[in-house]
Amino acid sequence: MEVCNAGKMQPAHTTRPVGNRQIHLIDGAFDEGFVAMCNTWLDRIPYHRADYDAEGVRDYLHFKIEIPQTELAANPVTRMLETIVRREVADIYGHLFPELQRVHVNLAPYGDHFTAHIDSAQGVTAIYFANREWRDEWQGETLFYAEGEPVAAVAPRPGRLALLPADMVHRVGAPSRLFAGARLTVAFKFTTREKPE
Question: Which CATH superfamily is domain 19-191 in?
């Protein structure tokens, strides 16, 4: 398993505007072998409906599993994920001294309902899109909002990382019924000393 680094193709960094703020997208930080291995591991985890998007929808739970930070280093897949995510977050938000607080996996099948929400009042969220394959017709884009309107959509491309301020309003997009599986993401939640711009 190799990760793109010095001497190899570098990850592609792009930004998307969301109102007067932006999200950062990193593609190519993980090679296809790692993306496939991570997807296989996540397919084998038993998920439970255990979390909700916002206070107003507490009765509608989503499939989720928490990964304790103490267990990240014990699994080669989560160890690699954590290493790359921390590196990318530090490159962009290092001046805010990000500190990892929570890691969890989200499973989103066709038909699930998701609500626009923020992750926390201050901090940074890193989303790893974990499906080894994704076709445009499967949809499942994450929507980002500014002033109550969805203004940006990010496709769940295999191995993509999206970094965003934790107080940016966003909503998971469930996959279309053309996809028989489930959309998989791993979310890394960081606190910061100041709010990201």
Answer: q2cbj1_9rhob like domain (2.60.120.620)
